[in-house]
Every structure is written in structure tokens, then in C-alpha cells.
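1st attempt posting a full record on here, be nice pls
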Amino acid sequence: ARELDLPLSFLGPGRYTARVWKDATDTETQPNHLLTETLPVSSGNALKLQLALDGGFVAQIAAAPSMPRKA
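the predicted structure (as C-alpha cells):
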């Protein structure tokens, strides 16, 4: 296993949502198992990922929806 810290400094200002597909904790015995998580992120964050030896991840990052302001 290996650990990856992926800085998100390439993102512009604002709030984003990252949906991440990554190796599950039992990947050594079940290589097709994945975990999916959704995280709030910004340019000051880094994605911290635990990857299996021959594993990987996919991250989809999109602008977070705006919250409507109350009048």
C-alpha cells in the first residue's frame, strides 16, 4: 500500500465537492472492491488517499452548489 497527498491548489477560489472512487480496505484479497466518498474541498485542501500496491483512484471535482440566501 502507499499513501498519496494530492494538493488541490489548482482549484480557483470557492467551494467544491470531490467525489472519489478509491481502493477499499480489503483490496489485497478483493481487488475489485472500491469505496466511494463525497467530500467538501477547496484550493487549500489536499486529497489524502491510501492506494493498494497496483491500485488507483478517480476523483470528480465540481463547484459546490450555492446556498440560497434568505431575504
